[in-house]
Amino acid sequence: MVFCLIVLVVHAVSFFFSYFFFSPGLSSKGISVVLKKMPAACDSVLEDIEDIVSAQDPKPHDRQFVRKNVFPKVRKRSSQQNTQTDDDPPSDSIIPGVQKIWIRTWGCSHNNSDGEYMAGQLAAYGYKITDNSAEADLWLLNSCTVKNPAEDHFRNSIKKAQEGNKKVVLAGCVPQAQPRQDYLKGLSIIGVQQIDRVVEVVEETIKGHSVRLLGQKKDNGKRLGGARLDLPKIRKNPLIEIISINTGCLNACTYCKTKHARGDLASYPIEELVDRAKQSFQEGVCEIWLTSEDTGAYGRDIGTDLPTLLWKLVEAIPEGAMLRLGMTNPPYILEHLEEMAKILNHPRVYAFLHIPVQSASDSVLMDMKREYCVADFKRVVDFLKEKVPGIMIATDIICGFPGETDEDFQETMKLVEQYRFPSLFINQFYPRPGTPAAKMHQVPAAVKKQRTKDLSQLFHSYNPYDHKVGERQRVLVTEESFDSNYYVAHNPFYEQVLVPKDPVLMGKMVEVNIYEAGKHFMKGQPVSDARVYTASITRPLAKGEVSGLTEIFRQTKEDSLEQHPTYHSSFNRAVDALDITDRNIPCAVHSQDYSTSLLPSLGKNR
């Protein structure tokens, strides 16, 4: 308002002098008349800035002419920045949906399932998923935050992508838990519960924008398990379906960073999980893995429990197919031991259970806030071994947790010696930033390293499968070994059995004679006169083929293509609906990593 008054005064003075000096015969009376006719500054309100432009002001054409004679000062930039600016076309000239995308996933089976869903959605919209990182236009890096080495690999991959001028989208637990880390600045992030919007994030990233979707999915204020289970996906192994039954957990372990990313327990409804399993079998799947941060806690937030879900799933499993149950912590399985034993004895369920103990010292478990004691773990193991003959129990141990004494560690060694676990995941403790354990008094690095070495030596001192040589076993063949010399199968206890590389056997359940045993596997020869079971209701999908393209999803894509035949621009509509003008915005802001375990999978597709 002050500016307007000043301008009006200037114009009034100018008008007065021009009229006074250049108008002939102007009398003092005339001057007074003119002054009376001049409007006051407060008589009217300016509706537009153009209202104060007079005839004497320069016109736009004149201003443009003057501008041509102005030479702007150029600020020098690095040659690398100039090159990148020159090479990058304007965002409106880029056509999303035709680029090549390379996806890298670290961590647990839950993370692998998320990676499969993201790949499926991108492929369904026209993007090409490639195994060649060099030829990719964009890298989608799906991270794990359990241990420092996994995050170090993730960070190095980001740096490598940037050095190669690749577009980058980040996913997984690392950016979800700590999105404000320096090395994540300026990069697009897709949250662990937002994977159904990966197409939008990739599309905008390819255009040169930075997008962050980190919110939680809720229904009437109640947190949901995550993205829908009926989304398109590309299974890493077309014969294996990974189903996340819940996300998050009920614990607050002092060393766990995953809790920061996955949050509290949120379970999927039983009907949705059963429907997903049925759909998988209709697409040629013969093995289902149930996964989550803690499968034993399933259903506590929605008024049901794990045994109820498992019995419903068992009804949907066809002959020749198998179900594998994921990790469960001791406190929750204790409540369902009788029912769990019955389920694990079912012929279509692997007699296998992963129960992390982490330490055999009650004082260490208390510092970890694990909510059970060693006696609870032993009760679970002893009961299942008695009621489910031959069951394989897998467990985890952390070496060198803060405050762990030599006596504490010796208790852990005694536990391993007592049970001789055939599957043992040994993890040297790494303090994760932001966790209570990171602030505790740390065990010296050399001591942690030595304890890890001692436990590893104990584990390698026994062979769990030697007594099975000569047995006749029923196995399900699902993948190829890393060395490509064998196919990998699993017997009813989920123990690995290598069989001859005969394409006829893939996806089949066959009987074999065990003729050799190693530390992590057995070798079997198919029995010629034995019956071969084919679990598949239909032919398995080809490797890289998109599954789960429901009619709703197909119709959505077709409608989009009718509106724009080149690509699907769903993000623009989402932004318009949210009334968001800044694309560089954050929309919101217990699993284990077995990459260094001592029971390596022999298959390529793990």
Nearest-integer average pLDDT: 82
Secondary-structure content class: alpha/beta
Contiguous uncertain segments of 5+ residues: 19-55, 76-86, 563-600
| Number of β-strand runs | 22
Strands ordered across the widest β-sheet: 2-1-3-4-5-6
Cα end-to-end separation:
69 Å
Number of helices: 19
Shape: globular
Helix content: 25-40%
Describe the largest sheet.
6 strands, parallel
Q: What gyration radius follows from the Cα positions, in whole Å?
A: 33 Å
What percentage of amino acids are in beta strands?
A: 15-25%
Briefly say what this structure is.
Belongs to the methylthiotransferase family. CDKAL1 subfamily. The chain is built from 19 helices and 22 strands.
How would you describe the overall organization of this protein?
The protein is an alpha/beta fold and 606 residues long. It is 34% helix and 16% strand. It has 19 helices and 22 strands. A 6-stranded parallel sheet has the order 2-1-3-4-5-6, sandwiched between helices. Strands 17-18-19-21-20 form a 5-stranded mixed barrel. The protein has a 3-stranded parallel sheet with strand order 9-12-13, sandwiched between helices. α10 packs parallel to α11, α13 packs across α15 and α16 packs parallel to α17. The termini are far apart.
